[in-house]
Amino acid sequence: MTANKTSQAILIKIYNSLYNEFGPQNWWPGDTAIEIIVGAILTQNTNWTNVEKALFNLKKARNLSVEALKKIPQSKLARLIKPAGYFNVKAKRLKNFMRFLDNEFAGNLNKMGKMSLPDLRKGLLSVNGIGPETADSILLYVFSKPIFVVDAYTKRFLYRHNIVGQDAEYHAIQDIFMQALHHEVMMFNEFHALIVRLGKEYCKPKPSCQQCPLNKLNYSLVYKCDYCHRYLPALRHSKRVPSFLDCDCRQ
């Protein structure tokens, strides 16, 4: 399904509504590139409060630098990041990333950042324990690569507004933003952060729809048939987004 002006206008309307409600978010929370990378890995399956505790432990122990993370024993690293949960698994994933950084870029993050977006994304996804969301967070927030980060908050609010189906896959959701919006790092950065804020304050597991800044927006029909130009609703239980093949005119 190719991008169209309808989906672009709707996403811009959503962005403006969230920005007017919350203001600039100034993400990602982190002082250095390696801190952002570590945070992106630690935040898997936990909340940011727990990640902050783990990052504090690493800082206090002077183990939040590329050199320190390369040298620290995995068992000690696991103890320091224990507040983030799944600490043994995440310690292994951090070590996997550090080996990737060392083997491919001689431990140099600046060298890593010079790779093209597709090549660097492929490399990150080859690291055991780094999936699409973590890889894209690193690409966007560390290396300023124009890619949209999709998370549970994104999927939840899009599903509730009938924009994607309940089982929509990561890349199908990502394509909605990537195809409709200009590839601007600051826009993708701010939009993702605003969606997270929306998910934390309004679009929670038990939502507060009446107070939500998106409550009065009419944008539940995003997709347009390329042939008859009729708007198509989301496929509620599909891993993909609609296309002209789902339109009645093609039956």
What does this structure look like?
This protein is mainly alpha-helical and 251 residues long. The chain has helices spanning 5-22, 33-42, 48-60, 66-71, 74-80, 87-105, 109-113, 117-125, 132-141, 152-160, 170-180, 185-201; strands at residues 223-224, 231-232. The protein has two domains: 1-26 and 149-251, Helix-hairpin-Helix base-excision DNA repair enzymes (C-terminal) (Endonuclease Iii, domain 2, Orthogonal Bundle); 33-141, Hypothetical protein, domain 2 (Endonuclease III, domain 1, Orthogonal Bundle). Helix content is 53%, strand content 2%. Strands 1-2 form a two-stranded antiparallel sheet. Helix 1 crosses helix 11 (170-180), helix 1 crosses helix 12 (185-201) and helix 10 crosses helix 12. It is globular and about 60 Å long.
Determine the number of helices (DSSP H or I, runs of at least 4 residues).
12
CATH class of the largest domain, named: Mainly Alpha
Gyration radius, to the nearest Å? 20 Å
Give the N-to-C terminal Cα separation.
17 Å
Average pLDDT confidence is: 88
Strand content: under 5%
Q: Tell me, what's the shape?
A: globular
Largest sheet descriptor: 2 strands, antiparallel
- Strands across the major sheet, in which order? 1-2
Task: Report the CATH superfamily of the largest domain.
Answer: Helix-hairpin-Helix base-excision DNA repair enzymes (C-terminal)
Order of helices and strands: HHHHHHHHHHHHEE
How much helix is in the residues? Answer: 40-55%
Number of strands: 2
- Please give the CATH architecture of the largest domain: Orthogonal Bundle
List low-pLDDT spans.
none
